[in-house]
Design a protein that fits this description.
The protein is mainly alpha-helical. The protein has helices at residues 15-18, 25-33, 47-78. It has three helices and no strands.
Length: 85
Amino acid sequence: MVEFLRVPPTNLTLLSRIHGGTFNEEAVAQAIDGRRRIGSHGPSDMPVWGDAFSSSLAQGGPEALRARVRAIVRHLESLQERQAP
């Protein structure tokens, strides 16, 4: 899908570096679940993930949705490039 984007996507392995060496779990969670609007993304609905999030909410309620978002946040944190000391 990258070829169809006007603004190149953020390199998600660099979130910590971009933010001064800190991985802000809450800010990342808010970007994923829609509480924080990302201007370059346009509308906050995510067609690719919308069904997965909706099914989590329908099957397990809000806690299941929060668990799915936490899992994505943990995964993104594990992808962060580590800076050399």
